[in-house]
Amino acid sequence: MNKKLKWLCIALAVLSTYSYATCSKQEVMKLIDKGVSKDLINSICETPSKTTTTTAKPKSKWITPSNSTCRSKGGKLYKGVCDAKWQQAKNICRASGGRLPSKSELLSVISDCGGNTANSDSAHTENRDDPNYQSCYKRKGFVASSNYWSSTSYASSPSYAWTVYFYGGDTSYNGKNGSRYVRCVRAGQ
Fold it and tell me: Which residue, 33, 127, 174, 175, shows the most beta carbons closer than 10 Å to its own?
């Protein structure tokens, strides 16, 4: 393949993948025609931002199940959040490429956000009154309005599992036949 055709293919690949903040497509083409490398073009034209058709976000430990996966595995949407029974929640997480988080993994969100994980009224009040804690768990994709399932069964009764309520940082156990919110942990995390 001749050199100019090779650079044209590279240019088309670059242009179809990236949108440059300070360089027009014509300017990028001129740089490619001059033999400038992709890395140098990126540095000249600032960092590119992906413009793919997917809404891919940086890989996070947490997975929010899609509406279609939630529904197809027996869950329902409640206020825009996947809500399901415990076994359905496990199936939803598997279908989403993850697993249902343990109680300790959910509690780590509370502590990572500066919340108090003690299961006491004073700790719950402290969490509810702390604006930094409140905004932190929401930035991580959790909501305040209900409990989230954990994979951890309640030792005294296997028909119950632990749940976490982020608003106050409460933990409780709930019957697995009840519906609670679903958030998943990426496989391998």
Answer: 127
